[in-house]
UniProtKB/TrEMBL annotation, chain A:
InterPro entries: CENP-NAC/CAD_complex (IPR052011), Chl4/mis15/CENP-N (IPR007902). This is CENPN protein. GO terms for cellular component: chromosome, centromeric region; nucleoplasm. Pfam families: CENP-N. It comes from the Eukaryota. It is found in: Chromosome, Centromere; Nucleus.
From TrEMBL, chain B:
Gene3D superfamilies: P-loop containing nucleotide triphosphate hydrolases. Its main location: nucleus. The gene is Cenpm. GO terms for cellular component: chromosome, centromeric region; nucleus. Keywords: Centromere, Chromosome, Nucleus. It holds the Pfam family CENP-M. It comes from Scytalopus superciliaris. This is Centromere protein M. It comes from the Eukaryota. It is found in: Chromosome, Centromere; Nucleus.
C-alpha cells in the first residue's frame, strides 16, 4: 500500500472522535467484520489509527477507498466546512431522466480532460444526494488529498452545494464539469453561505415552516405565548403590545425551527447622509461600509429581538427576507431617481 | 405593574390603582433601553420627581457588555433629582437585596412609614451620594 495513502488514512481516522470510530468504519465497509473485531477501541486514538492502517494494508487499500472514508467523515461532520450554494439553469423545459452512471462518466471525463491529476470519488445517499469529492493536482504534481473540494448535488433539483478547497482557481473547472454532466447550461453562485449544509438545503428546498397567507388572525391559544405568571399581583400593562409582537413574529418567522445561519453581510454602497454643516465627506462618492451580523443561530436571534424588547417589531425587511430570498449576502446601493431610498441589488 | 414604555395604554386607566413609585429600569447592555427611558420620562407628572421616581440600572455584573456610560446615567439621575440604583439581576443575592430596597422605598412613598416622606427620603439619598 502506498505510504501516502497509509498516512492519509491514519490522519483521517485521527480526526474522528474516539467514540465514533467504530461506527464510521462500519459505514465505510472496507474492513471486514472480523477485522473490526480485532480492533481495540479503548486505547488512545494514535494506536487505534495505527491498527486501522495495518488492517488497510492487509486489504491493500488505495486512495479511492481512503477517499470514501473521507466523504463519510465530511458527510457526518459537514458543519466543520463552509458551504456555498449554486443554482443551475437549463434553457429548455425537457424533463430528462437522470442517469447516475452517465452523470459520473461525463463528470470524470470533463475534469480529466482538463486536468490529469485529480482524484474523483462519488458516494450516493438515500435522500438523492450525490456527494462528490475532488482532490486537485497540477500537471506535475499528484493531487493534494488534504485540500479537496466537496460537491453535494441533489439530482432532482438545480442546486449544488460546494465546499471549495482553498484554491479558488479550480472552481470554474468544477462548475463546467457539473454543467456538462448534469445537462444544464448555466450555473451561478447564490449569495448564500453557511456552515450548516442541512440549513442551506432547508432554505433552498423550502423545507422550513413558512408564513402562509391563510394563517388565522387570532393567536393560537397556549402555543407560543409566554406562560403567564401565576402571580396575579403582577400586571402587564402592555399585554396587547406583547401579543402583537408575538403575532408578527409568527407571521414573519413561522413557528417551526428556523434554518441555522451564522451571519448576514450587508455591503453598503450608499451616500453618507450628514448635516451639511459637519462638512464630512464632501466628495459625492458612496460611503463603503460592511455591516456584519453574526450569531450561532442568526435567524433565532433575530426572532427573539422584538420579544426581548431590543428592537421594534416588525423588523426591517432586510433582515426578515433572508430565508425567503435565500441569501445572506446583500449589496445595498443608492436608488437613483426621485426617492432617495436604498434598494437591494439582485 | 410592568410596562415597556410610557405613556401607559389608556384602555386600562380604570383598572389602575394609585401609583406610588415609578422605577425606570435601564439595561446597561442596551442603548435602546436608555433611549426608551429618556423618551418615557416626559410622560411622568412633575410631582413624581419629588421622591417617587427611581432609576434602576441592571446588568452591571457583565462589565464587558456595557453599552452605556455610567456617567450618562448618573447625570440623568441628577437632572431628574431621582436616585440611581445599580444591580445585577442574574445574581440571586443582589436581586433579593435590590427588591428589598425598592420595597422599602415603596413603603415610604406610599406613606406607610410615619415621619418619613418620599421627598425627605430622596433628599437623604441624594445627600449621601454627594458626600
Amino acid at each position: 500500500m502506498d505510504e501516502t495513502v497509509a498516512e492519509y488514512i491514519r490522519r483521517t481516522v485521527l480526526k474522528i472522535p474516539r467514540d465514533e470510530i467504530k461506527v464510521m468504519l462500519e459505514k465505510w465497509g472496507f474492513l471486514s467484520e472480523a477485522q473490526l473485531q480485532t480492533l481495540n477501541f479503548h486505547q488512545i486514538k494514535d494506536n487505534i489509527s495505527q491498527e486501522v492502517v495495518q488492517l488497510c494494508e492487509e486489504n491493500s487499500a488505495d486512495i479511492k477507498q481512503a477517499a470514501v472514508l473521507d466523504i463519510i467523515y465530511n458527510h457526518i461532520y459537514h458543519n466543520k466546512r463552509m458551504w456555498s450554494v449554486y443554482q443551475m439553469r437549463k434553457t429548455g423545459e425537457e424533463l430528462e431522466y437522470f442517469d447516475l452512471t452517465d452523470f459520473k462518466k461525463k463528470f470524470k471525463r470533463r475534469l480529466r480532460s482538463a486536468l490529469k491529476n485529480v482524484t474523483i470519488t462519488f458516494k450516493e445517499y438515500e435522500d438523492n444526494a450525490i456527494w462528490i469529492r475532488v482532490a486537485w493536482g497540477t500537471p506535475h504534481r499528484r493531487p493534494n488529498q488534504y485540500k479537496p473540494s466537496y460537491v453535494v448535488y441533489h439530482s432532482q433539483t438545480p442546486y449544488v452545494f460546494i465546499s471549495a478547497s482553498v484554491l479558488k482557481s479550480n472552481l470554474p473547472l468544477l462548475c463546467q464539469a457539473l454543467l456538462v454532466a448534469s445537462n444544464y447550461h448555466d450555473i451561478r453562485e447564490m449569495e448564500l453561505r453557511s456552515h450548516s449544509l442541512n440549513s442551506l438545503k432547508d432554505i433552498v428546498f423550502k423545507r422550513y415552516s413558512q408564513n402562509f397567507p391563510t394563517y388565522c388572525p387570532k393567536p393560537l391559544q397556549e402555543k407560543n405565548v409566554e406562560p403567564e405568571s401565576v402571580d396575579l399581583r403582577i400586571v402587564q400593562e402592555n399585554r396587547s403590545e406583547k401579543e402583537r409582537i408575538q403575532r408578527l413574529n409568527q407571521e414573519i418567522f413561522g413557528h417551526g425551527p428556523l434554518p441555522t445561519l451564522e451571519f448576514a453581510h450587508y455591503r453598503l454602497e450608499t451616500m453618507f447622509k450628514s448635516d451639511p454643516k459637519m462638512d464630512v465627506l464632501d466628495k459625492k462618492e458612496p460611503f463603503r461600509c460592511l455591516v456584519k451580523f453574526s450569531s450561532p443561530h442568526l435567524l433565532e436571534s433575530l426572532k427573539s429581538l422584538a420579544p426581548a424588547g431590543m428592537a421594534d417589531a416588525p423588523l426591517s425587511p432586510l433582515l426578515t427576507c433572508i430565508p425567503q430570498k435565500a441569501r445572506n449576502y446583500f449589496r445595498i446601493r443608492e436608488k437613483k431617481g426621485l426617492f432617495p431610498e436604498s434598494f437591494v441589488s439582485p | 405593574h410592568l410596562a415597556t414604555s410610557l405613556p401607559l395604554p389608556s384602555e386600562r386607566d380604570h383598572l389602575r390603582p394609585r401609583i406610588d413609585l415609578v422605577v425606570f429600569m435601564i439595561d446597561i447592555k442596551s442603548k435602546y433601553s436608555l433611549k426608551n427611558v429618556e423618551a418615557s420620562l416626559p410622560y411622568v407628572d412633575a410631582s413624581y420627581f419629588l421622591g417617587k421616581v427611581c432609576f434602576l440600572v441592571t446588568g452591571v455584573g457583565r462589565v464587558n457588555y456595557c453599552s452605556i456610560d455610567t456617567s450618562a446615567i448618573c447625570k440623568l439621575g441628577e437632572d431628574y433629582c431621582s436616585p440611581v440604583l445599580f444591580c445585577e439581576l442574574e445574581l440571586e443575592g443582589i436581586r433579593v437585596a435590590t427588591a428589598q430596597r425598592l420595597l422599602r422605598m415603596l413603603q415610604i412613598c406610599a406613606g406607610f412609614v410615619p415621619g418619613v416622606s418620599a421627598l425627605s427620603f430622596s433628599l437623604l439619598m441624594r445627600k449621601s451620594a454627594d458626600d
